[in-house]
Amino acid sequence: MIIPGSRSPKNFNSFLCPLIKELQELEEGVQCIDGRTNEPFILRAHLLTWTGDVPALSKSLNLSGHNSYKGCHFCMIKGTCHPSNKHIYYPSSAFCNIRNHDDTINMGKLIEEETNKDRKDEMIRETGIKGSTVEWRNWIILFSLPLLKVYLDKRHLQGWANFVKSVKLCLEPEISEEQIDDVQILLKKFSDYYEREYYQNNGQCLAACKISFHYLLHVADSIKYCGPSWTHWQFPMERVCGILQPLIKSKIKPYSNLANMLTLLQQFYMLPFFSISKAIFKEKPLKQWSKERVFSTEGYEEEFYSPSTQYSLLSQEHKHLIKFYEGSSNINRNDLEMEVNNYGVRYGRLRTSDGQYISSCCIKRNNKIARNNYCAQIRRTIDKLAHRPNAPPQLIIVDIYGIVNYYLVHEFNHQVYMLAYIQLTSKIVEDEYGCKHFTQFRSKEFIDVRCLDHCIGFAKIDNKYYIIDKENAFDDSNWENIGH
What we know:
Elements: H1 13-28, E1 30-33, E2 40-43, H2 54-60, E3 80-81, E4 88-89, H3 101-113, H4 117-127, H5 134-148, H6 154-170, H7 177-199, H8 211-215, H9 219-226, H10 235-244, H11 254-270, H12 277-280, E5 294-295, E6 303-312, H13 315-328, H14 333-339, E7 343-351, E8 357-358, E9 375-383, E10 395-412, E11 415-425, E12 429-430, E13 436-438, E14 441-448, E15 452-461, E16 464-468
Antiparallel strand pairs: 1-2, 3-4, 5-6, 6-7, 7-8, 7-10, 9-10, 9-15, 10-11, 11-14, 12-13, 13-16, 15-16
C-alpha cells in the first residue's frame, strides 16, 4: 500500500526489502509437508507477473510520473510540451519502442552513479527513470451507443464504436491471437479518431490529449504478456480496498487495527474446520416454506416465489395454454380443449436454476423509477429444417426476448407444469454498431420456465427498444471452462 501526498515514502525500495527477501526464499525453496501423503517436499514459487495502478508503478519501478516527458511505463516515447499550457502530449504512433529490462537497469545505474544533481535531474527527464470502475464498464458496453446515437454524427459514433468493440474483446475470459490483433487495430483507430476530431493539431486543445489515451496503444501488448485483462486489471484490488476500509476503527493506529481485524476474521473462518465448532455454534435447521410462499416440483430446479393467488385464465389465455400443450404432446387440439382446465396458481417471481431472479408484470410497481426486472432472454430449441418434412431434425438453440406477464402452476394429464406467460418482441435487428433493437411487442404465449435464461432490460429511445443485456455484453460462454 502506497501512502500518497507529501508524506509518501521517498525511498520506496526500503519498504520492498522484506518482500524481496521472502520472494528469494520462495525461489530457493522451502520445506513443506504434503497434507495428503504426509511426505515432505520442497516448495518453490516464482513471481511471473505483477500489476498496479499508475502511482504504484511509478514508485515501484523507479519511473517518473505520468506528467513527465517520458511518462509511459511501456515505451520510450517522448512527449512534447506546448509552451502556453505546459501540457505534455504523447502523439499517436503505429510503432512504439518498448522498454526492456536490461536497458532500464543500465540507465538506472548511470543515474545512480551521477553525482551532479543538475545532471541527474536532466537524465531523469530524458529517460523517465527515477529513484501511482465497473460502472464505467457498463456505461461503455451497454448504454453508451444506444444513448449517443440520438446526439452524435455517424463519424463520431463509428469512432466511439471502435473503442466499445475493443473493450468487449478485452473482457473476454479467453482471447485468441487474432482477437488481440483486433484489439490493437480498433484502439489504434480510436486513437487516430480522437486526435483527428479533438486535438486537430491545435496547441490549445492539447489538454484533451492525456497519457491515458497513449496507454491504449499498449493494451494489446499487455494482454500478450500477461493474459486476458481480467487476470491483471485493478478491479479486484479496488474491491479489496473497499472491503478493508470499513474494518478500520482506530485513527491512532489504523494499520494495527486492520491487522487485528483481519486476524480475527480469519480465525472465525477457520472455526468450521474444527469439530469443536459444532458444540459452540448450533446448526440452524433449514427453514420450511409453504407452497404459497415458495413452490417447486419434481423435474424442475426452478422455484416460484410469492405473491401467489388462485387464478382463472381468460379466454385468450386459455387458448394460448392449449396451444402450448398442443406443441408438447401428441394429443389433438379438439381433445385438448376438453381436457385442459382454465385454472391454476399464479406467482409473481421466478428463481432460475442458476440462482437468478426474474420478476413479472403482474406485481410491478407503478413508479417511473421502479426497477424493470421482468424482461427476459428466452432460449428455445427449434428444428432448423422444420420446413422440410422428410429431412432429419437439425436442432439449434435460438435466443428470443420478451416480457413476463406472470408465472403459472398448472396441472395437466396428472403432471404439474411450471409455466411463464410472456409477450414476445418483434424481429430483433442488429445495427452497424452491434446494438440490438426491435420496434414493437407482438403475440403472447405460454412457455416452460426452463426456457427462461436471465433478466435483461429494454430501453426505449425514439421509436425503438434497445436490448440492454449485461450477461451477454461479451461472450461469457467460456467462463465455466476456466481452470478446468
